[in-house]
Amino acid sequence: MISAIQRQEDGTINLTVNIPFEDIKKIREEVLENYTKTAQVSGFRKGKAPKKIIEEQVDQDRLKEDILKKLLPQFYLQAINEHKINPVMAPRIHVEKFEEGKDWQFIALTAEAPQIDLGNYKENIKKITAKSKIVVPGKEQQQVNFDEIVKELLSSIKTKIPSVITEQEVDRLLSQTLDEVRRLGMTLDQYLGSTGRTAEDLRKEYREKAENDVKLEFVLQKIADEENIRVEDKEVEEAIAQGKSEEEKENLRTNKYLLASILRQQKTLDFLRNL
Length: 275
Prior knowledge:
Blueprint: E1 3-7, E2 12-19, H1 21-38, H2 51-57, H3 60-82, E3 92-97, E4 104-111, E5 116-117, H4 121-129, H5 146-156, E6 158-159, H6 163-183, H7 188-195, H8 199-226, H9 233-241, H10 246-254, H11 256-273
Antiparallel strand pairs: 1-2, 2-4, 3-4, 5-6
Helix pairs in contact: 1-3, 4-5, 6-8, 8-11, 9-10, 9-11
């Protein structure tokens, strides 16, 4: 395999990967064999048509897509192992060369966890939490404002988030909004018109939100690691037991890793609040 790596200034990793024609040819035969087993061709029983006939009739674009589905994960994994990369996201794939009878080439954009300098975050957050620890007789004790803590935390640390991670989160937010708009029986244009925004306005708004959300996620993870904040199996099971229905409980059981991650974030926020 021939692959090349380029690291961008913001931490985005650009992998250029070649897929040799011999590998393409081998998988092509396997895909065609699978087509033959299920194909229904006039004059032949199901799965009994000659492979040559199937090859002549098959949609070539579909054939290439099915070949890629088998080859892309394999060659992407080889590339990240070759360059000793530990990605924290699914790659954004773009096929560059897709010619018949030649090697194919694709570009994968990915990223590792960013480096984070926490600075004097504890001292700075203590200035926020200090007022909640002052007890004045006859007055209600002030509660810590999480938004203030998060704002102070993000201004205290230094990091550079790879743009490919931010853009992936922007796409997720946009997709989520589009689903919600469709459920309301509206088009995206109707929704934008009702809010007085353009598609570019919405993407800009979500990019700002994504940058802060992604940064906060990595910062909380860094603090949890440094402070040895852990989530025990018992805590996960207790959270599952609090599900409002059996369906919700089963969904939580299926996504235990995600649930543990959310619980760990919450414990880290509690740690910050109690500084």
